[in-house]
Specification:
- There is one protein chain.
- It is built from ten helices and 15 strands.
- It is of the alpha+beta class.
- The strands form three sheets. A seven-stranded mixed beta sheet has the order 8-10-11-12-13-7-14.
- Helix 9 (276-284) links the parallel strand 12 (262-273) and strand 13 (293-297).
- Helix 1 packs across helix 2 and helix 9 (276-284) runs parallel beside helix 10.
- The longest helix is centred in the first third of the chain and has 15 residues, at 98-112.
- It is globular.
- The termini are far apart.
Length: 348
């Protein structure tokens, strides 16, 4: 038999969800909900670009592209570029050229839809190496900073993924850290510790205000339009809270994110401020970590912001970890129409 790559159809989603559940220890129902959100509800690519590799009647590999938007120059409309993600290949079918088959199918689809490039902002080292071998080019490191407690790492209970997600699905699970502090408990600590009258922490935020501030502060780079933010913050695998700095208008925000599978880590999923002082006060409002760690991606921080984060206790995440050694990659589908070199925007 030979391997055949096709676009996934609705009837394939259940089988893909089972494959994902088997490979990364999640529940199939939760995986199906994640796929629905990421590929069918994406506001920028209406027809899901989710590819499957078939071996006979079985799906043995998956790779998807979902839509992102970027501001690539003054006076230019936001440009939609697909992002490659969710590589899944059954172990017994690895090292047989499936990544290359999927890559070629994705390039053909991107070319047919008129996309100038394919981006890759995630993926462990092995995936990156395969991408580079297929012609992707690096734009820079996705550097990470972390702030951890000084106590010994907590002993976290190992909970099977499908059990964990099942509890979350029924609304009875709230991510809890090693010292027994829940998401909302930590947020109460942040609120109690902050004596800044401009700062509040909330379970919701005005995406129109967030988008307007982000576009004013970052006219180039990733576009945080309202449609994007509404979609991004609907990720069913994450819990979000917002640290907001406001006087007469919103001047800064942190988006705090908890992955239900990693409750001991608080990721600062987004940070925007119109002033370095506002940025410093937002970081300063975070409760001191004990059995948790804060993770901040620093690739788009200015030098002053990086120094501020360092002063607030953030340090470079261990470079040896596959998870932290990520790079921003792109594949030029149509090099003549667009050049992503980073020369126009240092944040790229």
């Amino acid at each position: 038999m030979e391997y055949i790559v096709t676009l996934a159809v609705d009837e394939d989603l259940d089988e893909i969800a089972v494959l994902e559940a088997d490979l990364i220890n999640t529940g199939a129902r939760a995986s199906r909900r994640y796929l629905e959100w990421k590929y069918r509800r994406n506001p920028f690519i209406a027809s899901p670009l989710l590819f499957v590799v078939r071996y006979g009647d079985e799906i043995v590999g998956v790779r998807g592209m979902y839509g992102t938007t970027w501001n690539l120059g003054p006076g230019r409309d936001a440009t939609v570029l697909p992002h490659a993600d969710d590589l899944l290949i059954r172990e017994e079918h690895r090292n047989r050229g499936l990544f290359l088959l999927l890559h070629r199918a994705m390039v053909r689809a991107a070319r047919e839809h008129g996309y100038a490039a394919i981006l890759s902002l995630s993926g462990v080292v092995t995936t990156q190496e395969l991408s580079l071998a297929c012609g992707y080019r690096p734009l820079g490191d996705l550097r990470a900073l972390q702030r951890s407690g000084t106590s010994e790492p907590p002993r976290r209970r190992r909970i099977e993924g499908r059990v964990l997600r099942g509890l979350r699905r029924r609304g009875v699970f709230s991510p809890t850290f090693g010292r027994g502090v829940s998401v909302d408990g930590l947020c109460r600590e942040i609120a109690a510790a902050s004596r800044n009258p401009h700062i509040e922490i909330s379970a919701s935020a005005d995406v129109a205000e967030m988008s307007a501030l982000a576009r004013a502060v970052h006219p180039l780079g990733a576009d945080r339009g309202e449609d994007y933010l509404r979609w991004r913050l609907a990720n069913p695998d994450h819990v979000y809270r917002f640290v907001l700095w406001t006087d007469t208008a919103l001047r800064g925000f942190l988006v705090l994110s908890w992955d239900v599978m990693r409750p001991g880590r608080v990721t600062i999923a987004d940070v925007v401020s119109d002033d370095d002082t506002v940025f410093a006060e937002l970081l300063g409002a975070l409760a001191e970590p004990s059995d948790i760690e804060y993770l901040l991606m620093s690739a788009t921080l200015t030098e002053n912001q990086a120094n501020t984060a360092h002063a607030a206790g953030f340090r470079a995440a261990p470079a040896a970890s596959d998870e932290q050694s990520r790079r921003f990659l792109y594949f030029a589908v149509d090099p003549s129409s667009m050049s992503l070199t980073g020369e126009d925007d240092p944040s790229l």
